[in-house]
Write a structure and sequence with these properties.
The protein is an alpha/beta fold. It has 2 domains: 354 residues, ABC transporter type 1, transmembrane domain (ABC transporter transmembrane region fold, Up-down Bundle), CATH 1.20.1560.10; 211 residues, P-loop containing nucleotide triphosphate hydrolases (Rossmann fold). The chain contains 21 helices and 14 strands. The strands form 3 sheets. Strands 3, 4, 5, 6, 7, 8, 9, 12, 13 and 14 form a 10-stranded mixed beta sheet that branches. A two-stranded antiparallel sheet has the order 1-2. A two-stranded antiparallel ribbon has the order 10-11. α1 crosses α8, α3 runs antiparallel to α12 and α11 runs antiparallel to α12. The longest helix is centred in the first third of the chain and has 48 residues. It is elongated, with a radius of gyration of 34 Å.
């Protein structure tokens, strides 16, 4: 039985724009705390701190250099207005010194920023994969609804986008803050004595250039927020649809044989077209929001070309500023205004950042929850017990195909016993198999597993063969060095795979290199290599060909004689003598839906 047959993770994500917008509005601080916790626990957190400190220092030095460059404007342009060639040459040398220093600082900031991005990604991806690969956590997450769908997208593309956007936005915001703090004083000093003459009376407006910059940028920020506020939810929707399309493409690539044999290319193309249409529709909404936002950002961008001169012009025409002073005042206003306009210029990027933050932080929240399984119906309890015995008390497993339980309420299986459980359809054997393995909590009852003893599981279908050397595949999940080379070779010989013995240290995609029967044989050879204390089998023996079944039966009588074996499903004739007990299963089909019942979610 497919491990995901009853899992909602076999379906694409279904996150509507309204749901995404609701999540955005109710969890920014919580989402930031999730990411912050991951970074604090990172092994490279000290490196991140040093990079952040270095960037801060470089930005502070850059702001000082920008102030010097701004002050340079006045003597330079005054020398031009006086036609003073000597001062003009001197100021050119000053400019070269300042520009060279700023160039070095810009290169340093770029290196520090790019290094920060990949270090952030290292920290976040390692944290997410560590949480994801906790025992049974990944499987339970697939049963938790849309959050368990496409985890690869969240850990690969979303984390990369989040780290790059976070670094860019954080550096930009810090730089804008430092520059505004530096040039605010310049603007205040230039316009400290400004006054407006109205009705024959002067009204003092100290620092009016600073207030003009704040008012101008604040207006742009408010307009940007109201025009582009839906970008966050629409970006989140687009990422979800992109993940669905990627899922469809990956699934087709994994099942090309079946699709080609069934001549199903046209049908798969139709499915891709549906997913692509949803991606394009979500992208269309993002484009619409970006277009509307551009009306605001572009308008303020063009006005900014002349607005600083207009603001400084009253001081120049009143004789309080020279021509060089006008250029310096306009440049200072531009620096301050650009710093204040950071929110306007970056609103679309901030919206993208919020969308990726939502996806990554909510994924980590799900991974770190104390209990991933749904409350309703998740009542099978698993506890460790004494070695050498497996207790099953009142087990009743629930699945979409019905309920299955052991006819006897209390069962005790000892190490070395050979037990078969029969009497239920194949559709219910899979959930029972996963319940005994500790993966399936839906139902009721209590399973006490033998503590400190190793189980090996043999599910239906093709076994999992990790990418790596064949030696690593046979030792998985243990280390290849735990077993002697002779045992690897002997196991392959026993299961009629002598051609693979010279390839023990060869790294390949064995799930594609080997045919169906050879993959099953490798899984059986893995059991022989590891010789576990317990072996749980989901009906596989009934599907084995004689050339694989015979050596496996001999191994159960020989090297694996101390291994406790539980087989769910029918046992072929040649192996019946190996099993000493039969545990009958009782099962009930799912209830027939009432055609007159109201739809789910509606009151009767």
């Amino acid at each position: 039985m497919d491990a995901t047959q009853d899992s909602p993770a076999t379906q694409p994500e279904h996150v509507t724009e309204a749901q995404a917008e609701a999540d955005v509005q109710t969890g920014l601080l919580r989402q930031v705390r999730q990411i912050g916790q991951a970074l604090r626990q990172s092994a490279v957190r000290r490196t991140l701190a040093w990079l952040a400190a270095g960037i801060t220092l470089v930005i502070a030095l850059t702001a000082y250099g920008q102030l010097q460059l701004n002050e340079w404007n006045k003597p330079f342009y005054d020398a031009i207005s006086r036609r003073d060639l000597g001062d003009f040459r001197h100021e050119l040398l000053v400019f070269l010194v300042i520009a060279l220093g700023l160039l070095v600082l810009n290169v340093a900031q770029r290196w520090l920023g790019e290094t920060l991005k990949w270090r952030l990604r290292e920290s976040l991806v390692e944290d997410l994969t560590a949480q994801w690969m906790r025992p049974r956590r990944a499987f339970w997450l697939t049963q938790s609804g849309p959050m368990g769908v496409n985890p690869d997208q969240r850990m690969h593309d979303d984390t990369r986008n989040l780290c790059e956007l976070s670094a860019n936005l954080a550096i930009g915001l810090l730089q804008a803050t430092v520059l505004f703090g530096s040039f605010a004083g310049v603007l205040w000093t230039i316009s400290a004595a400004f006054s407006i003459h109205i009705g024959g009376q002067d009204y003092a407006v100290p620092g009016y250039m600073l207030w003009a910059a704040i008012l101008y940028s604040g207006t742009g920020g408010v307009l940007s927020y109201f025009v582009g506020r839906r970008l966050v939810s629409r970006n989140a929707e687009r990422y979800a649809r992109e993940a669905d399309l990627r899922y469809s493409l990956v699934r087709i690539n994994e099942h090309l044989d079946g699709i080609s044999l069934a001549a199903g290319e046209a049908d798969e193309q139709r499915r891709i077209r549906i997913d692509l249409h949803e991606v394009l529709e979500a992208t269309r909404l993002v484009v619409l929001s970006l277009t509307n936002l551009t009306w605001v950002t572009a308008t303020f961008g063009w006005i900014t070309n002349i607005f600083p001169v207009l603001v400084a012009a009253p001081l120049y025409f009143s004789g309080k500023l020279s021509f060089g002073g006008l250029i310096m005042a306009a440049a200072a206003f531009t620096q301050a205004e650009v710093s204040l306009r950071w929110f306007v210029d970056n609103y679309s990027v901030i919206a993208d950042w919020r969308a990726t933050l939502l996806r990554v932080a909510s994924f980590r929240q799900a991974l770190t929850d104390a209990e991933l399984t749904p409350e309703s119906g998740a009542d099978i309890h698993f506890t460790p017990g004494p070695a050498g015995v497996l207790h099953i008390d009142g087990l009743n497993v629930e699945a979409s195909a019905g309920h299955v339980r052991f006819a006897d309420a209390g069962i005790e299986i000892h190490s070395g016993e050979r037990v078969q459980a029969t009497g239920a359809p194949d559709a219910l054997c899979g959930p029972l198999f996963r319940a005994l393995a500790g993966l399936w909590p839906w139902g009721s009852g209590h399973i006490t597993q033998p503590g400190g003893e190793r189980f090996t599981y043999l599910p239906r279908g093709l076994p999992y063969l990790p990418r790596g050397a064949l030696r690593d595949v046979l030792a998985y999940p243990q280390q290849a060095g735990d077993f002697a080379t002779t045992r690897y070779a002997d196991s392959l010989q026993r299961f009629h795979l002598p051609r693979l013995v010279p390839l023990l240290d060869t790294t390949r995609r064995w799930d594609r290199e080997l045919n169906h029967d050879e993959q099953i044989a490798v899984a059986l050879a893995r059991i022989f290599v590891q010789q576990p204390q317990w072996l749980l089998i989901d009906g596989v023996l009934a599907t084995l060909k004689p050339e694989a079944l015979a050596p496996f039966a001999l191994a159960l009588q020989g090297e694996l004689s101390a291994t406790g074996v539980i087989h769910i499903g029918a046992v072929p004739g040649p192996c019946k003598a190996l099993f000493t007990r039969t545990l009958p299963l009782a099962w009930t089909p799912p209830p027939t839906p009432d055609p007159h019942a109201p739809p789910a979610g509606e009151a009767p």
